[in-house]
Design goal:
Blueprint (H helix, E strand, L loop, with lengths): L3 E6 L5 E6 L5 H19 L17 H36 L17 E7 L2 E7 L2 E3 L5 E4 L6 E7 L8 E3 L8 H7 L2 H7 L22 H7 L4 E14 L1
Antiparallel strand pairs: 1-2, 1-9, 3-4, 5-8, 6-7, 7-9
Helix pairs in contact: 1-2
The chain binds the ligand Nc1nc2c(ncn2[C@@H]2O[C@H](COP(=O)(O)O)[C@@H](O)[C@H]2O)c(=O)[nH]1 and manganese (II) ion.
Length: 240
């Protein structure tokens, strides 16, 4: 899991506080419990699945309802966590950069990623799972981070029907964690994070910017899904 907080500047030198975090594994643990139940159910029903990992629940059954309830709980927990972390982060920034005075954000964006939601698409109520994606309905604000050395974007959704009103939740990996550690050196990490106050040791070599796809290309490829509202560059990045 990759969690981070950043102090960023936009192209007008306005300060943005960004954080990326989810349910901190509890959502995953709950999912594993429900996946085991789905596998057992498939076995008991004698369902021949192409792969055991394709085990599923049928909407409306008690098992589905229990899964859905836990999923919603994990999402609420993740949002609450982000709110708490952001409040503390803001307080620290106010203390050190604003002479202790409370500041008022011009824009607040808090979006889920890796989650599921019940929505209407093409006239039908459906369950949409966004894995590595965020919602980009018209007027939805979203955050698309690049890497610990690249630009990140604040976006507004265009409500593109054929993407089920979604966009990417980041640049995405170009290299696996292991590959990145084999390909790059500590000197590369220092070079690629020049100007960013962040960890510069082999413990974060798998997070080197070169391990991620070029964010500008990713944004160009999804220009029909979102419009760019702000372009951010981090000055501080703390990995959790
Ligand atoms: N601004 C930063 N962006 C980062 C950092 N580490 C990763 N990323 C980008 O975020 C997405 C989402 O991360 P994930 O771990 O949930 O997949 C990822 O695809 C990268 O593009 C960072 O330290 N700062
Ligand atoms: Mn994530």
């Amino acid at each position: 899991m990759n969690h981070f907080i950043e102090v960023c500047l936009d192209t007008e030198n306005q300060v943005w506080l960004m954080l990326h975090s989810g349910s901190r594994n509890i959502g995953n643990m709950l999912a594993q419990c429900h996946i085991s139940t789905a596998k057992e159910l498939a076995k008991m029903a004698g369902n021949k699945l192409a792969d055991p990992d394709l085990a599923y629940f049928v909407a409306g059954t008690p098992e589905f309802q229990a899964y859905w309830r836990d999923l919603q709980w994990a999402q609420d927990y993740a949002r609450f966590n982000r709110n708490v972390m952001m409040a503390r982060f803001k307080h620290i920034i106010e203390k050190h950069l604003a002479g202790g005075k409370a500041t008022k954000p011009l824009l607040e964006v808090n979006c889920h990623h890796n989650y599921a939601e019940k929505e209407v698409h093409f006239g039908e109520e459906v369950y949409v799972t966004r894995k590595g994606a965020v919602r980009a309905q018209q007027e939805d604000y979203g955050i698309i981070p690049g890497s610990m050395g690249a630009i990140s974007y604040i976006v507004k959704g265009k409500g593109h029907a054929h993407s089920f009103c979604s966009c990417s939740h980041g640049a995405g990996r170009l290299l696996s964690r292991n590959k990145a550690k084999n390909v790059y050196t500590l000197d590369d990490l220092i070079e690629q994070t020049k100007g960013v106050e962040c960890r510069k040791d082999t413990g974060v070599l798998d997070e080197i910017p070169g391990a991620y796809k070029p964010i500008d290309q990713v944004m160009e490829n999804q220009s029909d899904l979102v419009e760019i509202v702000a372009t951010l560059k981090q000055v501080v990045c703390v990995k959790g």
